Amino acid sequence: MDSAKKYNNIKLAIGIGEGIFSFILILENFLASFIENQYLLFLAFVLVIGFTGSVLSFPISYYTGFYLEHKYNLSNQTFWKWILEGLKGLLVSLVIGIPILLTFYYVLNTFYSLWWLPFAIIMFFISVVLSQIFPVLIFPIFYKITPLEDENL
Question: To pair with 133 at 20 to 30 A between CA atoms, which of 25, 44, 94, 97?
Answer without folding.
Answer: 44
